[in-house]
Amino acid sequence: QLQLQESGPGLVKPSETLSLTCTVSGDSIRRRTYYWAWIRQPPGKGLEWIGSMYYSGHTYYNPSLDSRVTMSLDMSETQFSLKLSSVTAADTAVYYCARTPNFFRGEYWGQGTLVTVSS
Amino acid sequence: NFMLTQPHSVSESPGKTVTISCTRSSGSIASNYVQWYQQRPGSAPTTVIYEDNQRPSGVPDRFSGSIDSASNSASLTVSGLKTEDEADYYCQSYENNVWVFGGGTKLTVL
C-alpha cells in the first residue's frame, strides 16, 4: 500500500532555507507513470500548490515561489525533497507531499508536517 | 493565471442535498479538468471527484461533480448528507503547468 511521509525541521529561522523530504513506501519515484508534488497550507487557510516533478527530474513550480523553490529526486528510489529559500513568517504552513497520476491532480497525499518560521 | 472562487461556507441538514460552486475567473471551465478534495479537521485532503465528474473507488455515489459552461463554473453536489460529510472542500484546476486551488468551502451539516 502506498504511503508518503514528510519529514524535516519543524522550526526554521527567518531568511534561512526550509528543507523537507518525502519518503515513499509501496512505490518507486522513478516509475514513469507518476509526478510527485508539494502543496502547503498556512494555518487556518487554503491550499497552495508549490510545485511538481516528473520521474525524470523535470520540474514545474508555482510562479509566485519559483525564485525560491528547488525540488529534487534523491538517488534512492524512495525519497524526493523540497527546498524553499529566504523564508519568512508567511511560509509558516503544513507542507504536504503527494503522488499525482498525471501532472494536473493529486491522488495520494502524506499526512503533512507543520513548519514554523520564527526566530 | 485564473482564479477559482468558492463560497466561504454552506450548511444543510442531514439527509438533504447541497451544492458547492467553483467559478473560474478567466478562460473556459471546460478547458481543464476540475478536481474536488475533502479535508476533515487535522487531516490531509482526499479526492472526492477528479476530471470534472469521476469518483475514485471508495467514494460514495452521493458525491457528484459537474461543469457548466454558461456560468463558467464547476459544482460539487452531495446528496443524502451525513454528519461525516462535514469538512472543508476545495476545487482545483490547472493551466500552463500551474495548479490553481479555490479558496475552500466549509460544509456544515446541522
In short:
Chain A is mainly β and 119 residues long. Chain A has strands at residues 3-7, 11-12, 18-25, 35-41, 48-54, 59-61, 69-73, 79-84, 93-100, 108-109, 113-117. In chain A, 0% of the residues lie in helices and 49% in strands.
Topology at a glance:
The complex is a heterodimer of chains A (119) and B (110).
Chain A: E1 3-7, E2 11-12, E3 18-25, E4 35-41, E5 48-54, E6 59-61, E7 69-73, E8 79-84, E9 93-100, E10 108-109, E11 113-117
Parallel strand pairs in A: 2-11
Antiparallel strand pairs in A: 1-3, 3-8, 4-5, 4-9, 5-6, 7-8, 9-10, 9-11
Chain B: E1 4-5, E2 9-12, E3 18-24, E4 35-39, E5 46-49, E6 63-68, E7 73-78, E8 87-95, E9 98-101, E10 105-109
Parallel strand pairs in B: 2-10
Antiparallel strand pairs in B: 1-3, 3-7, 4-5, 4-8, 6-7, 8-9, 8-10
Written description of the protein model:
The complex is a heterodimer of chains A (119) and B (110). Chain A is an all-beta fold. Chain A is built from no helices and eleven strands. Chain A has strands spanning 3-7, 11-12, 18-25, 35-41, 48-54, 59-61, 69-73, 79-84, 93-100, 108-109, 113-117. In chain A, the strands form two sheets. In chain A, strands 2, 4, 5, 6, 9, 10 and 11 form a seven-stranded mixed sheet that branches. Chain A has a four-stranded antiparallel sheet with strand order 1-3-8-7, with no helix packed on it. Chain B is globular. Chain B is mostly beta strands and 110 residues long. The mean pLDDT of chain B is 97.
